[in-house]
Q: What sequence folds into this?
């Protein structure tokens, strides 16, 4: 049976202050971020500005800086920070027994 | 100059005392002996209470205005100039109508006639007299103590002597100095002299450095750290004599050892300067005896500072002075505010290392208990001494952030029973877990908690200064002097600014980024001075305002650490821009381009075949000849990069670092091998330069070109380092840029041989690596520091050039592993592969 959550792997497969990606067939890639204080966030791997791969940005605090033009995106909300305006969809994520789970329905929705 | 206005002759028609005697001046005349920190601080306190009450005359022995004596060390170290450490400039004396008689010490006091007489014969009458003569260095009575070259470390003159000795030493390829005394002053002198290029030996009679401020463990950490910086520290070293014919030649110890030196700095201690008071018949013990309002045995005469003895105590630190001056000034305006002695704490940077101690840390009293935390790898040692559940002493080494909190608890004498389990972890942790807001800790400090130890400024004073309109760090420094001296409390002051003003804080000088109040240069200096070896260490010690920095500071710190500690610092991949993390250039569609190195622009059928194969195998949509004489393969997916690199490696090619703040390309023309105009083998030199410099991380990208003749086909005059070959040798050009703002190179010099061209290039790269700010190309860097500076370091200073070259080659011994080969072999595979893949349709079907 398929649950509400998709198991994508072990927490320690994601580097601290780093990100790993999950491609979704027919849809947009998901980026899962792990911050310095060991919080997890999942967003569509696309900057609202020029579609840069956020997963390749520098993670600091609870933000990521897009590698293409240095937009800062809040990981919790997907909102661009400062003067920049735009928003990247977020996906609920949780850790269970060291495994990383992302919300299936949101992933499908983001993929659509 | 205003102090010249004062009539030199005592019988001058307009002299101050005649005015007073004739009744033209109704105010009482306060004469101050001593233009140092205590004397002027007392006057500042008095002016703040009642500016018009006294007419003030200050005598100073030195030919200077009032300066901050405890900041002589940074002047010696070259971190500050004399102007930086002036507390009150001439305008202050003029504005407050204070007559300054400088360079003319008082030699006698006539208590009956109420006059003082100076060395030049000037006699001035007083109504009240303030003695603030400070202290004299203690000179140990050994043979040779009077030889030229034996000095103390007490005033600007001593600093000038030390600088001259260092200069003379440098001319002979490095001089030697001995510092006798491993206390605060001695270590500061040793540090400054080391930075000035001298070989320094510190002789300390006790077994522990700074034994009055540090316990044995902290003293040992300090000794180890100083030895790591090249100083020789001899403890239990008993000086027998200073030898030399007509000038100092060295020091001989009682155990027979001899240490050659052209300079001996005597810094074994100080004692109150009380001779003048004693000669005047004032009551003198170890110092001039004073009551709780700093009045001596003569009611018309006061004394303050290091020259006094109060309640049996004499003080050699700056903090008690502030308390004394407050009580003294209150007494002068007839207000009761008795001085009750000071519990002293010492928070300081010894040679850039943070040290704090307070109270009684001998731990020998009845019922004394110790709480100790050691973190050897971070070089941190904390020890609290408790008695009856109260803190009675503290020693902190390496991390002194909680010093003011412990000192506050110590002074209040509160029971720490409830905090005991977490006390040692500091205020932030004790007041609410490891995640607690550092701002809350500062907010929780009481108003009389000391913020700035150098200038004795309490939290309440800083806050009221901010409330009165000081909305920037500089304004606070100007307004109440907090953070104006050593700067170790800058973080605290900034937090107070933020707490008091919220968003309205005005920016000071350009900082590295918004996470810190320090500039690029500050951070680099402190990384070396405090031997910081990791990004969290830097953020911790320099009070970063964010938990793990930002996309601006992390790559900069990573570079600065990498540059400072070659081979020792472990590169932080998560602090690298994507290109340097993936060793390829990200393109606008999220794919990457790959540029293999083509040494000096040379290639071969084998390399070309391998590149052609890669282009076909990975379906690269484009391959292009770059401006730097190599080939760029576009449209490679992140997942395919390791396989692409493996194929290129197999044909003998390595990373071209086209993505890095590093040596990019070395562009060449064909030179004398083929060209009818060529004067030298420009291609060969280009290959050699590239082989020498590849793989080195730098502040920004770095391009080299070598042209075989002045026709300059390789366009060497718009490169960071350009060589133009001529018949008689090689012209070396630096600081060119073909980017947004075109800049032609400056001619650095001309050398005769290929080897020299290589050596100068290595030295130049290293100078750029060590001095330029992160993301600063050579062109703006040279415009900032000046070509003369670069010439002085590279062309004129042969020893320095060789040292730079050696440091570069040492650093290169760790950086010339092909990053592609490591990745192709599987290292960092998680950077390239997906974590998982999701196929919704298949999943739906399964459901």
A:
């Amino acid at each position: 049976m398929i649950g509400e959550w998709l198991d994508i792997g072990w927490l320690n497969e994601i580097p601290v202050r780093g990100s790993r990606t999950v491609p979704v067939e027919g849809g947009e890639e998901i980026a899962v971020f792990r911050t310095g204080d060991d919080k997890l966030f999942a967003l569509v791997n696309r900057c609202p500005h020029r579609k840069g791969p956020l997963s390749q940005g520098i993670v600091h605090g609870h933000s990521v800086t897009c590698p293409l033009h240095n937009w800062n995106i809040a990981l919790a909300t997907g909102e661009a920070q400062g003067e920049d305006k735009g928003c990247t969809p977020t996906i609920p994520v949780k850790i269970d027994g060291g495994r990383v789970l992302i919300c299936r329905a949101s992933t499908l929705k983001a993929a659509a | 100059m205003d102090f010249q206005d004062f009539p030199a002759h005592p019988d001058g028609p307009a002299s101050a005392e005649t005015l007073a005697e004739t009744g033209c001046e109704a105010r009482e005349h306060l004469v101050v002996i001593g233009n140092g920190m205590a004397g002027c601080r007392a006057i500042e306190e008095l002016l703040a209470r009642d500016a018009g009450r006294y007419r003030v005359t200050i005598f100073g022995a030195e030919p200077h205005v009032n300066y901050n004596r405890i900041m002589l060390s940074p002047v010696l170290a070259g971190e500050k100039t004399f102007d930086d450490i002036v507390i009150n400039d001439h305008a202050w004396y003029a504005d407050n109508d204070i007559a300054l008689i400088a360079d003319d010490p008082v030699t006698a006091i006539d208590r009956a006639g109420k006059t003082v007489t100076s060395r030049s014969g000037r006699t001035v009458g007083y109504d009240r007299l303030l003695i603030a003569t400070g202290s004299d260095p203690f000179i140990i009575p050994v043979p040779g103590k009077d030889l030229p070259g034996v000095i103390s470390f007490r005033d600007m003159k001593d600093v000038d002597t030390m600088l001259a000795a260092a200069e003379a030493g440098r001319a002979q390829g490095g001089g030697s100095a001995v510092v006798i005394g491993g206390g605060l002053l001695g270590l500061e002198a040793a540090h400054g002299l080391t930075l000035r290029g001298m070989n320094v030996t510190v002789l300390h009679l006790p077994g522990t450095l700074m034994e009055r401020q540090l316990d044995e463990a902290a003293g040992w950490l300090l000794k180890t750290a100083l030895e790591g910086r090249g100083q020789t520290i001899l403890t239990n070293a008993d000086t027998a004599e200073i030898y030399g014919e007509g000038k100092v030649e060295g020091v001989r110890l009682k155990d027979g050892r001899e240490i050659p030196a052209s300079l001996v700095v005597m810094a074994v201690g100080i004692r109150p300067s009380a001779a003048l008071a004693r000669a005047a018949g004032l009551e003198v013990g170890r110092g001039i005896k004073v009551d709780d309002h700093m009045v001596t045995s003569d009611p018309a005469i006061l004394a303050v500072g290091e020259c006094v003895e109060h309640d049996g105590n004499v003080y050699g630190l700056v903090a008690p002075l502030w308390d004394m001056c407050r009580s003294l000034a209150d007494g002068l305006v007839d207000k009761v505010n008795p001085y009750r002695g000071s519990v002293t704490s010492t928070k300081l940077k010894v040679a850039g290392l943070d040290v704090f101690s307070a109270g009684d840390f001998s731990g020998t009293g009845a019922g004394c208990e110790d709480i100790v935390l050691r973190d050897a790898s971070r070089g941190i040692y904390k020890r609290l001494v408790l008695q009856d559940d109260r803190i009675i002493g503290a020693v902190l080494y390496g991390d002194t952030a909680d010093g003011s909190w412990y000192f506050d608890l110590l002074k209040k004498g509160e029971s720490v029973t409830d905090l005991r389990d977490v006390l040692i972890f500091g205020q932030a942790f004790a007041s609410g877990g490891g995640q607690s807001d550092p701002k809350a800790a500062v907010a929780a400090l009481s108003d009389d908690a000391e913020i700035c130890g150098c200038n004795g400024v309490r939290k309440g004073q800083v806050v009221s200064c901010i409330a009165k309109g000081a909305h920037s760090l500089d304004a606070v420094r100007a307004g109440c002097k907090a953070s104006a001296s050593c700067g170790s409390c800058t973080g605290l002051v900034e937090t107070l600014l933020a707490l008091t003003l919220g968003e309205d804080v005005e920016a000071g000088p350009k900082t590295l980024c918004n996470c810190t109040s320090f500039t690029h240069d500050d951070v680099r200096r402190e990384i070396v001075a405090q031997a910081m070896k990791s990004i969290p260490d830097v953020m911790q010690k320099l009070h970063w305002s964010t938990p793990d920095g930002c996309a601006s500071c992390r790559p900069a710190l990573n570079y600065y650490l990498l540059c400072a500690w070659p081979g020792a610092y472990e590169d932080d991949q998560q602090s690298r821009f994507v290109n340097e993390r993936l060793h390829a250039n990200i393109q606008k569609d999220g794919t990457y381009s790959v540029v293999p190195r083509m040494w000096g622009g040379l290639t071969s059928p084998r390399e070309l075949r391998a590149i052609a194969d890669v282009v076909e195998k990975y379906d690269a949509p484009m391959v292009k000849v770059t401006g730097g004489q190599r080939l760029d393969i576009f449209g490679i997916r992140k997942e395919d990069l390791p396989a692409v690199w493996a194929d290129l490696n197999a044909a003998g090619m390595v990373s071209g670092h086209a993505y890095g703040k590093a040596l990019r390309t070395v562009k060449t023309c064909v030179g004398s091998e083929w060209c009818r105009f060529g004067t030298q083998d420009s291609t060969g030199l280009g290959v050699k330069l590239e082989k020498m410099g590849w793989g080195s991380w730098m502040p920004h990208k770095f391009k080299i070109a070598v042209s075989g003749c002045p026709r300059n086909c390789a366009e060497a005059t718009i490169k960071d380092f350009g060589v133009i070959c001529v018949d008689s040798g090689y012209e070396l050009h630096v600081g060119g840029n073909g980017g947004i703002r075109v800049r032609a190179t400056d001619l650095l010099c001309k050398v005769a041989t290929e080897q020299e061209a290589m050596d100068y290039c290595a030295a130049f790269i290293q100078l750029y690596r060590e001095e330029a700010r992160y993301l600063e190309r050579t062109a703006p860097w040279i415009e900032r520091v000046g070509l003369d500076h670069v010439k002085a370091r590279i062309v004129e200073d042969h020893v320095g050039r060789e040292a730079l070259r050696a440091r570069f080659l040492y650093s290169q011994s760790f950086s010339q592993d092909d990053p592609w080969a490591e990745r192709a072999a599987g290292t960092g595979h998680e950077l390239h592969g997906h974590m998982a893949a999701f196929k919704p349709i298949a999943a739906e079907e399964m459901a």
